[in-house]
């Protein structure tokens, strides 16, 4: 659940839960509305009780009227009136009995001179609202009953409610209800906030700890996803960042090792021809090459050593440009079969010098690919050159095979050389890597040939890999995408 949705639900919960609680309380009002305990009824359903109070006052008044009609003398009996007075007191009301102009009985809650002096006269018609408004002290005259005693005395019985007392109790009820609602709101808000805070803060704390670990350089600390929300997604992103950072540092470390190897390799490979050139030049300067034959031999040797140095530098420069993606490619549609035929023909002359042989097998119909001719020639030359460097005791034989596979053409260049061990095979395309660590003079090279070839093939959208067995030989494979329906003008392409 996302944080946005979680917060939205918590806000909704802060509204809905109190409403549910209030509805439950209302249900309790209905359930307890018929209870005989008046204090409970006041707390649970005050508005309903107000109506019941008025009904009860009317009922008591009717009951008094019935009993007094049978015995009017009871109106001047305090003990009799007190019984009803106590009953009315529970409903914020009381009795006042007046004989002629004299008050003969008054409830304690109604002992107010202003009230007693403002009571309506005998048989006077009164209006309840006018009485309440004119009196101004919160008394409401509910009922007035006028009787004549046997001796002709005028008796008036009043049932009066004190609204101040009712208001006081109802204010208490209102305060209680307000307190309940506020408590529910506070409890709901606190509970929802706590759980949201707990889940979010825990994840943030974990992320903070993980970030500190990464800052300290501990890239092995795994960042786990605890929640399926934005923070969980952030955790995954940070974990991916950690893995990439760890991988980049490992690559950087490897590059640093390769850089050191490069410096060592280039230093070694350049030092040898430079020392040779220096020696032969000193020989010429000191007059050792005192015959034309010796002079020609010295100069040719110097030239070959310089050409070898030029090749090393050129290879390093090309690899650097490929690595920085600063080499432009001139792609054109070519027939890979014709290209390999020309390549085999060119390389055959060089291999004959070392009694080697190269041949193209399975000469099939034309297969068209998009390629940069110069770069692809460099790949073939590098692979064949590698086979020459690591040839075995027997004469070198190189076979080239071509086959279609789905929408690709796969070229295999197989030799019968020394082979590569299983331990070295996964690394032969790495920068500056050499399977032969002895670095004897006969092998030479910078260790960049296959790395350059792989980068060139990958720029063509293909792949390069190898298979090898010790003392049997090595096969280098590379793939290129086939151009469907391709055609070329052979005259415009110089293989």
UniProtKB/TrEMBL annotation:
GO molecular function: ATP binding; phosphorelay sensor kinase activity
Membrane topology reported for the UniProt record: Multi-pass membrane protein
Gene3D superfamilies: 1.10.287.130, 6.10.340.10, Histidine kinase-like ATPase, C-terminal domain
GO CC, one annotated term: plasma membrane
Coiled-coil blocks: none
All residue ranges annotated as the HAMP domain in the record: 198-250
Residues passing through the membrane, by range: 12-32, 177-197
UniProt entry keywords in alphabetical sequence: ATP-binding, Cell membrane, Kinase, Membrane, Nucleotide-binding, Phosphoprotein, Transferase, Transmembrane, Transmembrane helix, Two-component regulatory system
Compartments, as annotated in UniProt: Cell membrane
Main location: membrane
The protein's Enzyme Commission number: 2.7.13.3
Residues in Histidine kinase domain copies: 265-484
The UniProt record lists the keyword Transmembrane helix: yes
Catalytic activity: ATP + protein L-histidine = ADP + protein N-phospho-L-histidine
Entry protein name: histidine kinase
Organism, scientific name: Crassaminicella thermophila
């Amino acid at each position: 659940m996302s944080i946005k949705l979680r917060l939205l639900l918590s806000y909704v919960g802060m509204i809905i839960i109190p409403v549910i609680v209030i509805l439950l309380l209302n249900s309790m009002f209905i359930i307890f509305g018929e209870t005989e305990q008046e204090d409970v009824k006041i707390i649970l359903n005050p508005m309903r009780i107000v109506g019941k109070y008025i009904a009860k006052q009317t009922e008591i008044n009717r009951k008094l009227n019935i009993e007094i009609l049978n015995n009017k003398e009871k109106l001047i009996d305090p003990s009799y009136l007190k019984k009803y007075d106590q009953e009315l007191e529970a409903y914020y009301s009381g009795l006042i009995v007046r004989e002629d102009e004299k008050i003969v009985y008054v409830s304690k809650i109604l002992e107010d001179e202003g009230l007693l002096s403002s009571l309506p006269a005998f048989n006077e018609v009164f209006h309840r609202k006018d009485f309440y408004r004119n009196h101004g002290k919160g008394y409401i005259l509910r009922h007035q009953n006028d009787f004549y005693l046997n001796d002709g005395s005028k008796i008036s019985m009043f049932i009066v409610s004190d609204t101040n007392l009712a208001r006081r109790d109802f204010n208490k009820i209102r305060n209680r209800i307000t307190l309940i609602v506020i408590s529910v709101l506070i409890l709901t808000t606190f509970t929802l906030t706590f759980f949201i805070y707990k889940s979010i803060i825990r994840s943030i704390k974990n992320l903070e700890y993980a970030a500190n670990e990464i800052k300290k350089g501990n890239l092995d600390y795994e960042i786990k996803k605890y929640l399926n929300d934005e923070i969980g997604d952030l955790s995954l992103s940070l974990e991916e960042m950690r893995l990439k950072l760890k991988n980049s540092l490992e690559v950087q470390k490897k590059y640093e090792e390769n850089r050191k190897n490069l410096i060592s390799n280039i230093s070694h490979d350049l030092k040898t021809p430079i020392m040779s050139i220096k020696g032969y030049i000193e020989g010429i300067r000191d007059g050792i090459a005192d015959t034309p034959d010796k002079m020609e031999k010295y100069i040719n040797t110097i030239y070959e050593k310089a050409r070898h140095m030029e090749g090393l530098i050129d290879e390093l420069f090309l690899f650097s440009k490929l690595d920085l993606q600063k080499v432009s490619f001139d792609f054109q549609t070519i027939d890979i079969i014709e290209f390999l035929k020309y390549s085999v023909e060119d390389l055959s002359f060089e291999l004959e010098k070392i009694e080697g042989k190269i041949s193209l097998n399975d000469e099939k119909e034309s297969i068209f690919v998009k390629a940069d001719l110069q770069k692809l020639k460099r790949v073939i030359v590098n692979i064949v050159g590698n086979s020459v460097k690591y040839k075995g005791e027997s004469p070198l034989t190189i076979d080239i095979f071509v086959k279609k596979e789905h929408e690709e053409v796969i070229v295999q260049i197989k030799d019968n050389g020394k082979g590569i061990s299983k331990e070295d095979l996964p690394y032969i395309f790495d920068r500056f890597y050499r399977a032969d660590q002895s670095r004897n003079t006969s092998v030479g090279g910078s260790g960049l040939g296959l790395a350059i070839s792989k980068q060139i093939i990958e720029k063509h959208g293909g792949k390069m890999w190898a298979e090898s067995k010790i003392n049997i030989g090595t096969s280098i494979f590379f793939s290129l995408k086939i151009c469907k329906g391709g055609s070329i003008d052979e005259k415009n392409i110089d293989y």
